[in-house]
């Protein structure tokens, strides 16, 4: 039945051979519709059609999926294995139509999931497989305990104990896939250290001081200490950067103490930043391994497959859903423009008549998001920059500026919620935390702290600038080879750390 996965792939392949033009396959559909599975089948089919293919390369291209899914997928209410990032995979072919490599571009990783996930959803798969699959020794090495109820795996619905056998198996597959793309012992060590550091950072708790104008108290400084140790950064510098921030004014450095919320946010922001950069690094390594130039053959044409997170309408829709749904609006618009509005598209539309629903023009919806000054994104940026800005203030701006719009829906109560009538249906957005998610900044002190790591690789990872797609996987910047994290043996140092912290804050 059209549109048949293998038929679409075969047509693209035929065109690169006959017309010698690059092809792109755009896979769209709601979350859980089968985009990722279809992409995998198309890749398999394209590689299968390639003559004299190298089995090693063939296997590698097909086998990167468990890795991408480990770090980029999670259980959602709709899909047990939902892609929480967008992926553009480009297969390169030589003049004989032989596949000679692949490149992956990643976009929009939903890194907020590391620290918050909706009820009945899960965190990224890698955290569950780490606890289920890593040996006792490995976990002890990361100062993690099998039995502790960590926030990172507690959030969401997955019952690790019930799924342990499944996740142990998945962990072994993931480690095997990492080895296949060239991860050596040092790479594995640093990857595990970063995962461990993220887990410890999400455990850090803060407490208001008893007196006003006094710094916050870190309830469990041992967790900061452990994270610092795994990242080879100075624990005292890390503690200080979590509870105070510096600004420059008239050439002078001023220090501000963070409030409870700001400290929690900056700790979460650090955990998210480490995850995001680690994810980019894994993709970068996949790309290095599958680089077509390694085959010493000229790329004659390519077939790209775009698989982005599908349209979402969950029980609670937040900033992530707003961004995902906007991208889906843009894709829909692209389809309208480039497929259905030209002659070939019209024929296609007739052929598909009754099989798929042709959506109406959605330019008004795109304008609602993007129009200068009054579009949702400009309004959100404006409210975010406003010192007294709030989530409720953003919703007020949206509903006032779009009072007559048929696209924006309001609630009758004062909840910071508004609705958008998308091409695929109406979605209500709960705007709690929108401003923070939009800010998503790691303050300079924390950045500097990471850049001061004594481990060259961690330092590079945080010095590297993000590329045009917002990830580090694509930048030209050179990353040094990871070196094993040097562990200093620390015991019962938390007390000493607290004393040093108090002294340093007084100074
Ligand atoms: N061709 C297929 N064969 C077998 N199972 C499939 C196929 N397509 C989809 N499925 C089933 O549907 C589930 C969801 O598919 P998939 O993850 O590809 O959806 P998606 O559209 O990529 O969703 P999301 O946008 O959430 O990432 C799969 O985990 C699988 O169980």
From TrEMBL:
Region called Disordered, residue ranges: 485-507
Keyword terms of this UniProt record: Actin-binding, ATP-binding, Cell projection, Cytoplasm, Cytoskeleton, Motor protein, Myosin, Nucleotide-binding, Repeat
Alphabetized GO MF terms: actin binding; ATP binding; microfilament motor activity; protein serine/threonine kinase activity
Domain Myosin motor residues, every copy: 1-507
Coiled coil regions in record: none
GO CC, alphabetical: cell projection; myosin complex
Binding locations of ATP: 29-36
InterPro entries: Kinesin_motor_dom_sf, Myosin-III_kinase_activity, Myosin_head_motor_dom-like, P-loop_NTPase
Subcellular location: Cell projection; Cytoplasm, Cytoskeleton
Superkingdom of origin organism: Eukaryota
One GO process term, biological-process aspect: regulation of actin filament length
Biased composition (Polar residues): 492-501
PANTHER family: AGAP011099-PA, MYOSIN MOTOR DOMAIN-CONTAINING PROTEIN
Protein family: Belongs to the TRAFAC class myosin-kinesin ATPase superfamily. Myosin family.
Name of the protein: Myosin motor domain-containing protein
Source organism: Mytilus edulis
